[in-house]
């Protein structure tokens, strides 16, 4: 599984590691790749060691945007755990969701309005009940336990990118709006 982007406690770092530890009990061959920076004051290496996850969690630190897709394409699922308590996360659609969908992998996400809307409309991921590690682990296991359903979620996400969320689709919508206004 993969998490892309900067990672801090407002983006679920502690919950992700604790949930991953629970997932490792379910499937010992699970691997978590964090592609991005983890804020240093969280001391990620120490936390990974404390949880007994050395060798199962890898952090690449910053990578240029154009290199990220190859890592997403190697993953079975993407993760987005931004805190619904943070106002700025509630008002936007995280780019990582679009990246996961564009690479055709399902994702788990927190109940932010835009993320919830996409999961409900496109059926391309699983919404976590809360950031509680047990709920995050449950969502991860739901995707990992059914390969056919997982692949279908990924396919639906990719199709949604092609038809609704591509630059071409957005251009068409914007042109329609501008034509209606002007």
Q: Report the principal-axis shape.
A: globular
Strand element count: 6
Distance between the termini: 46 Å
Estimate percent helicity: 40-55%
- Element order: H for helix, E for strand: EHEHEHEHHEHEHHH
Give the CATH class: Alpha Beta
- Secondary-structure content class: mainly alpha
The side-by-side strand order for the widest beta sheet comes to: 1-2-3
- The number of distinct structural domains comes to 1
- Fill in the CATH topology: Rossmann fold
Mean pLDDT: 92
Give the biggest sheet: 3 strands, parallel
Strand content: 5-15%
| Uncertain residue ranges | none
The CATH architecture would be: 3-Layer(aba) Sandwich
Radius of gyration: 17 Å
What is the name of the CATH superfamily?
Glycogen Phosphorylase B
Alpha plus pi helix count: 9
What does this entry show, briefly?
With 182 residues, the chain is mostly helical. The chain contains 9 helices and 6 strands, in the order E-H-E-H-E-H-E-H-H-E-H-E-H-H-H.
